[in-house]
Design brief:
168 residues, alpha/beta, Nucleotidyltransferase, domain 5, five-stranded mixed sheet, 5 helices, globular
Length: 168
């Protein structure tokens, strides 16, 4: 299974494609950041996110998209911009017919590090270890996107079991 993780941000939107092999190995297919200029008008920035994430989907054909839930914003304006970026990420998924899974930051850190209050450095080190990377991704945004994808892969078996057990 191949998952696209997206870490939404106003200036930097991280993405990470992680594949789980039949023998349960995790492989980093690609990761990076969509860098946006705060000088560009918002519609142009949102289009850039749509285009760049769409290109990632076309290149790697993920089975699903996983994103982080909104948990905190320093002010209403920041929250609104973050919501718009998340909306574009969800639109990309819908455009390509992909489902979206959303995870709380504590769940992501727990799934990857085993501790919901882990700091960025701990997440970065564990992502590198789980993906057997020679060094952690340089960007925290790309690393967080990989962590979101890993979280989904770690929890998807549980989600499928719950769906199967649910009364119809």
């Amino acid at each position: 299974m191949r998952i696209l993780g997206i870490d939404c941000g106003g200036e930097f939107t991280g993405f990470g494609v992680v594949e789980q092999t039949p023998d349960q190995q995790l492989i980093c297919v690609e990761c990076g950041v969509v860098r946006l200029s705060p000088r560009d008008p918002l519609p142009r920035r949102l289009k850039r996110i749509f285009d760049d994430l769409g290109a990632v989907v076309e290149r790697h054909q993920p089975a699903m998209v996983a994103i982080e839930e909104v948990f905190y914003a320093s002010n209403a304006k920041t929250a609104l911009k973050l919501g718009q970026v998340r909306g574009v990420a969800m639109l990309v998924a819908a455009h390509y017919g992909l489902e979206v899974a959303e995870y709380a930051p504590l769940s992501i850190k727990s799934a990857v590090v085993g501790y919901g209050r882990a700091d960025k450095f701990q997440v970065q080190q564990m992502v590198a270890r789980l993906l057997k990377l020679s060094e952690p991704p340089e960007s925290f945004d790309a690393c967080d996107a990989l962590a979101i994808a890993i979280c989904h892969l770690h929890t998807s078996a549980t989600l499928q079991a719950h769906r199967a057990a649910a009364p119809r």
